[in-house]
Design goal:
Blueprint (H helix, E strand, L loop, with lengths): L1 H4 L23 H9 L4 H25 L1 H10 L3 H73 L1 H6 L6 H20 L4 H31 L2 H13 L3 H20 L2 H6 L3 H16 L1 H7 L16 H17 L9 H20 L4 H9 L1 H9 L2 H19 L16 H13 L10 H23 L5 H5 L13 H9 L15 H31 L9 H11 L2 H20 L5 H5 L12 H16 L6 H44 L15 H22 L10 H17 L3
């Protein structure tokens, strides 16, 4: 406390330490010095400590001078204090003894009051027990008196008809019995009650037999008053569930056993629907009076209804479920998925119709919370049904995603069977013949799995080598697909008895690559259509947040990502096919050098052959692919092949120029005036013919590019190629006389 109130004088602001450091409980000299050394030198720390020491010394002197008089007079002020204290001790001791005596008296009084109150409470409890026992005895005697008097007055009538009491008498007995039960529960454990219990059991049995008989009589005679009295009596004695169980056993069960018969259901195509229709007719035909009395019907009068009953939930529905489980076990068999789907759909429609008969939302909630309701739903083995459907779809899909690509069936919007089967599998997942609301989450996952599997399949196709035939087929109708497995097995057979492991890997033709791109494009166009099919079915199960179905958009992006590498493969194959003919330009010098051929006037035939695959692609697949995509492929392929062709032409012209310079040097060395090597008469030289032929080829190539719908200026390296051959042509024509 003293340390917490100690205040040190404030020092100059230039001090290198905080004065409050000295008042801390954990103050440590070593730590203080090391901390200050981080900021200043030891000499400066020493100087600051000396300054603050002088300040403390001055403050202490001032404090002593300020309270000096008090220090001096302290002993003088305490003179005679001990006598005053001794004088006070005697009266204080007397006061203490009086207080203790009073406290003891009060405590004894409180104990006496508590003992008397405890005795009174015990007496009161015993009195209440006696009163309750008296009430129990009175109620038993009263009920027995009513039963005996009724029995003595109507002995003959009861023997003739039945041992039943009237509804009014039963209501009086039930009211008294209810009080009896209350007091008996309160008096539980008392010896006298155990002696009376057999009489209470007899009254209970008699009351229940009478109520059951009277309720059955009321149901058989359709007497609303009797039914109302019975149900009110059951409610009075808190036995409403017994009444509902009785109705279920006596009224509902025989009807269900009569209607739910497996042989009748299986003998007709619409046997299940007919059975459910009869089950639904039970409520309006046989439960009308019960619903009117209990307020379950619209026409019920609120003033005369007996609340607390729900016969549809507690009597009818449990017996329906029991009858289906015992008499129609094949209903839940998922072995035949088509039949299972039909039965499940019809049964769920029946369940919804039955819920509408309940009459109120509270009744529907009680039905859905009933154990029989959960038992009915759990009997349907939906996971097994889904596994069977899953296997059907997967086996069919995997059979199409094989190494041997097959064409789609006639009439399909897809080109390949694999794509057709993928789309049909997606449609089947959400078709009315397969979809079940409870399996929506599983079918959604299967949809994404199918799209992912197709994406993997397309990526696997990218790893396949392009078959040799595809390059040769550019001379035939464009890139025709081959389904003959001997295409990939021919090489191993020609080698005669090689090991089976040496079979070449599955290849793919360029046509099939084009088909894959066309199918990818088609599939992406149809995915929004699939989503529109899915949305109503998801809304059916209460799904609202469609932003979470973005996984389908992710699958669509995955499919889109497959198009660029496929396009690159197609462009590469087109470019190689085209250049395989364009490189024939290397034969032009051989055709004209020292052959005395005429001056060229037309383009070489290899140009037409080089462009043939482009024409075939454009005309053969215009109905399958977007025109913009085809044009892009043509432009990219021509750009690649033209660049190589430009390099080839440049090399040819360079070699021609070198040959021409060599000949000129040879002529100068021989100092001869021999005629031009182009032939007699001073015609065009062989080198100029070569230049002219290449120029004609390039000009013709440009014309054909225009016919393909492309602009030659958009083809990379073509302007360079045009300028190259134009210069060569000018040189050839300039040397003519």
């Amino acid at each position: 406390m003293e340390k917490s109130r100690m205040t040190l004088p404030t020092g100059p602001d230039t001090l290198c330490f905080d004065k409050d450091e000295f008042t801390k409980e954990d103050f440590d000299v070593d730590h203080f010095v090391s901390d200050c050394r981080k900021r200043v030198q030891l000499e400066e720390l020493r100087d600051d400590l000396e300054v603050y020491y002088k300040l403390l010394k001055t403050a202490m002197v001032e404090l002593i001078n300020k309270d000096y008089a008090d220090f001096v007079n302290l002993s003088t002020n305490l003179v005679g204090m001990d006598k005053a204290l001794n004088q006070l001790s005697v009266p204080l001791g007397q006061l203490r003894e009086e207080v203790l005596s009073l406290r003891s008296s009060v405590s004894e009084g409180i104990r006496a009051v508590d003992e008397r109150m405890s005795k009174q409470e015990d007496i009161r409890k015993k009195k209440m027990c006696v009163l309750r026992l008296i009430q129990v005895i009175r109620s038993v005697e009263k009920i027995e008196k009513i039963l005996n008097s009724q029995s003595s007055k109507e002995t003959h009538a009861l023997e003739v008809r039945s041992p039943l009491l009237t509804g009014q008498i039963l209501e009086r007995i039930a009211t008294e019995f209810n009080q009896l039960q209350f007091h008996a529960v309160q008096s539980k454990g008392l010896p006298l009650l155990d002696k009376v219990r057999p009489r209470i059991a007899g009254i209970t049995a008699m009351l229940q037999r009478s109520l059951e008989g009277l309720l059955l009589e009321g149901l058989q005679t359709s007497d609303v008053d009797i039914i109302r009295h019975c149900l009110r009596t059951y409610a009075t004695i808190d036995k409403t569930r017994d009444a509902e169980a009785l109705v279920g056993q006596v009224l509902v069960k025989p009807y269900m056993d009569q209607v739910i018969v497996e042989q009748i259901v299986e003998s007709r195509p619409d046997g299940l629907q007919t059975m459910y229709k009869k089950l639904l007719e039970f409520v309006p035909h046989h439960c009308r009076l019960l619903r009117e009395v209990t307020g379950g019907a619209i026409s019920s009068e609120k003033g005369n209804t007996v609340p607390g009953y729900d016969f549809l939930v507690n009597s009818v529905w449990p017996e329906i479920v029991r009858g289906l489980e015992e008499n129609l076990p094949s209903l839940y068999n998922p072995g035949d998925p088509d039949a299972f789907h039909k039965k499940y759909t019809i049964s769920m429609n029946f369940l919804r119709t039955f819920e509408r008969q309940c009459g109120s939302q509270a009744s529907v909630k009680r039905l859905r919370a009933h154990p029989a309701y959960h038992s009915f739903n759990n009997k349907w083995n939906l996971p097994v049904y889904f596994q069977i459907r899953f296997r059907e779809i997967v086996v069919s899909l995997e059979a199409a995603l094989t190494a041997l690509l097959e064409d789609a069936p006639a009439g399909s919007s897809f080109c390949l069977l694999a794509s057709h089967r993928t789309w049909s599998s997606l449609q089947r997942c959400w078709s009315d013949a397969m979809f079940l609301p409870s399996l929506a989450h599983r079918l959604w996952r299967l949809t994404l799995q199918i799209l992912a599997r197709y994406s993997v399949f397309v990526n696997e196709l990218l790893l396949r080598p392009i078959s040799n035939e595809s390059a040769k087929d550019t001379k035939n109708p464009v890139l025709t697909s081959s389904k003959d497995p001997s295409v990939t097995q021919g090489n191993s057979e020609d080698q005669g008895g090689g090991p089976s492991e040496s079979k070449p890997a599955a290849s793919i033709s360029s046509t099939q690559l084009v088909y894959v791109v066309a199918d990818l494009d088609r599939l992406q166009e149809q995915l929004p259509e699939l989503l529109e099919t899915i949305k109503p079915k998801l809304e059916m199960i209460g799904f609202k947040n469609f932003s979470s179905v973005s996984a389908l958009a992710d699958s669509q992006l995955s499919l889109s990502a497959c198009v660029p590498p496929l396009s690159s493969r197609i462009v590469q194959d087109l470019s190689e096919s085209c250049f395989s003919y364009l490189k024939s330009a290397l034969e032009v010098p051989r055709l004209y050098r020292r052959t005395n051929k005429e001056v060229p006037t037309t383009a070489s035939s290899y140009v037409d052959s080089a462009l043939k695959p482009f024409y075939q692609l454009q005309s053969g697949h215009k109905d399958k692919l977007k025109q913009a995509l085809i044009q892009q492929w043509l432009e990219d392929a021509l750009s690649e092949s033209t660049q190589k062709y430009c390099e080839t032409v440049s090399d040819i012209l360079h070699s021609v120029r070198k040959m021409e310079e060599s000949l000129k040097r040879l002529k100068q060395a021989r100092k001869t005036t021999s005629p031009n090597p182009g032939g007699p008469g001073g015609g065009m030289s062989d080198d100029d013919k070569i230049r002219l032929q290449l120029a004609l080829d390039v000009e013709y190539l440009g014309e054909q590019i225009q016919k393909l719908g492309l602009q030659s200026k958009d083809i990379k390296s073509f302007p360079t190629l045009t300028a190259l051959v134009a210069a060569a042509k000018d040189q050839a024509t300039a040397e003519q006389p």
